[in-house]
Amino acid sequence: MARDMVVRISEGVRRQFAQERYLEAEYDRAYSLTSLILFFFSASTVGWLWEVFLHIFMDGALINRGTTWGPWLPIYGVGGVMTLVLLRKFADKPAHVFAFAYLGSGILEYTTGWALEQFRGVKYWDYSESLFNINGRVCLEVLALFAVGACFILYIAAPAMDNLYRKIPQTAKVVLCVVLITLFAADLVFSALYPKMGPGITMDVSETTKWIF
């Protein structure tokens, strides 16, 4: 009886250890270049869909949101890849991941908004009506959502998507990456020559509040 109990306890401990090791291995992994590229486009597309459906829900209008003409929002892809590249080393400390993601999201969104205003003279988003915002380019409460999203990416979404990417034959994966990069580069050039602007997409910088905090 005692021997059987010891065996059951040992087996339970072994399974628990194996499960913990499995969970650790799920997010504690090195992502290949092709996986990072595919994740960039996946995150960019999901971000674009989020913005489109959010606009439908809030304003009842179907609008191609974003800074380019393609079905992607690069800022989401950049943020997602930055999470995997820069924050994976802190994965065993979720509080650190959240804090760094909060700060990093703010820097990325602010600098991107500033650059678009300087080069195109318009705003693609504006948080001026929010209570806690900096120049309308970032909103402190929204950054908390981005930080939560970064944690979701690091611990759940990215490992699951990487598992799917690894099932794609290497040659096909490389070809897919090249095609996506080519299309994206063409979209960037076209968008630079013919910026996407209009109601629901952009607003004149002169018509927005410059500082509220």
Automatic annotation (TrEMBL):
Name of one Pfam family that matches: ABC_trans_CmpB
Membrane spanning stretches: 30-49, 69-87, 99-116, 142-162, 174-194
Keyword Nucleus: no
Keywords: Membrane, Transmembrane, Transmembrane helix
Tagged with keyword Nucleotide-binding: no
Protein name listed in UniProt: ABC transporter permease
Organism of provenance: Blautia parvula
